[in-house]
Amino acid sequence: MRALSLVCTLNSSPTPSSSQLLSDQVTRELEKLGVTTETVRVADHNVLSGMGIDLGDGDEWPTLREKVLQADILLIATPIWLGHPSSVCQLVLERLNMESSETDDQGRPLVYGKVAAVAVVGNEDGAHKVSADVFQGLNDIGFSLAPNAVTYWVGEAQHGTDYKDLEETPEEVADTTHSLAVNAVHLAKLLNDSPYPAG
Q1: d(C-alpha 108, C-alpha 94), whole Å
Q2: Which residues form a coiled coil (predicted)?
């Protein structure tokens, strides 16, 4: 079982990132369940905007796309910006959208049978709205969602505390992160054993 986390912080490495931290906590939970994980900070790569699997001119999306196709579980980790997923997250969804027209030999989208989950951080309310936006996009593309497919942390409104600056992980966040991992792995195993029927 393989999982890929696409971290959609606006900051490239090595800048500390709350989205990266929450992603790392999810992948640790997945690894406890025997899943092989890989994390990619999208801002470290030249992902061009536009429609197409490969836009040429140094576009690095094809490399990331191959990682998505090799994974059983895809985690999207995003901060909240002005009540929305980050622009990097939106870019990832737009590039993933091309997968809806790529099918296997039975006519199913290539991402059918893959499980998606979301991690959201911010210093204001909005995690449910952001996860709903990302969920809908991923489901439209063909990913499946397990129960409790999101973990999140948001600070108080009008405050500047970042998740990465907390002294310890809140128990509620740790519990939710664990549930996300357990449910995502369970669903991924079920779909591996019993794929969706051909359209």
Answers
A1: 20
A2: none
